[in-house]
Every structure is written in structure tokens, then in C-alpha cells.
Design a protein that fits this description.
Organism: Brevibacterium antiquum
Pfam families: Glutaredoxin
InterPro entries: Glutaredoxin, Thioredoxin-like_sf
Strand order of the largest sheet: 2-1-3-4
Protein name: Glutaredoxin
Shape: globular
CATH class: Alpha Beta
Structural class: alpha+beta
Strand content: 5-15%
């Protein structure tokens, strides 16, 4: 499960690229449509913070706008570090091969 949200607009190539970067890394983000009427308050909030280019990305520790491969790489690294590591399981039984 990813802790990343990408606020995107339809037909936005930078939005699609950003989303694809996260998906290919194994951390599909939550994608929200900035052009949807129910997200108008969020759009106003983003613009008021000085952001003028989609996508707008939110992670647990950072946020930015535009296609930012450097920020995406940092977010992916943080997600990997936060992900629980798989546990190694011991075999449930052994096979005697001495026959």
C-alpha cells in the first residue's frame, strides 16, 4: 500500500508520467482528479500555496508540483524504507534424501 497521493488532471502527460513512475516502482499512488468539482477546495489550497502546475504530489513527508523525477525517487526510497521486509519462512517439513 502506498502513502502517496497524486492530484492530477485529465490529459496531463506529466501527471501520467508521475503516476507511471510510482506504479513501476511498485508503489501505485492514490490518484485524485483536480478538475473534479468535489476537489475545488483542494485545487484552491494548492494554488494558494503557490503551485501552478499539475501534478501535485503528496507524500507523508513532502509535497511538490510538476514532474519531478528527483522527488519521485526520494519518495520511492522512503516508501521502500517504510515497507515491512518479507520474513523468511522455514520449511514446514524436511525430506530425508539419504535413501
Amino acid at each position: 500500500m502506498s502513502n502517496i497521493t497524486v492530484w492530477a488532471t485529465p490529459q496531463c502527460s506529466k501527471c501520467k508520467s508521475t503516476i507511471d513512475f510510482f506504479k513501476r516502482a511498485g508503489f501505485p499512488p492514490t490518484v485524485k482528479d483536480l478538475s473534479a468539482p468535489e476537489n475545488l477546495d483542494k485545487l484552491k489550497e494548492i494554488k494558494a500555496a503557490g503551485h501552478a502546475t499539475a501534478p501535485y504530489v503528496e507524500t507523508p513527508t513532502d509535497s511538490w508540483s510538476d514532474l519531478r523525477p528527483d522527488k519521485i525517487a526520494q519518495a520511492i526510497a522512503a516508501e521502500r524504507a517504510a515497507a515491512p521486509s518479507p520474513t523468511l519462512q522455514s520449511p514446514t517439513h524436511s525430506h530425508d534424501l539419504s535413501a
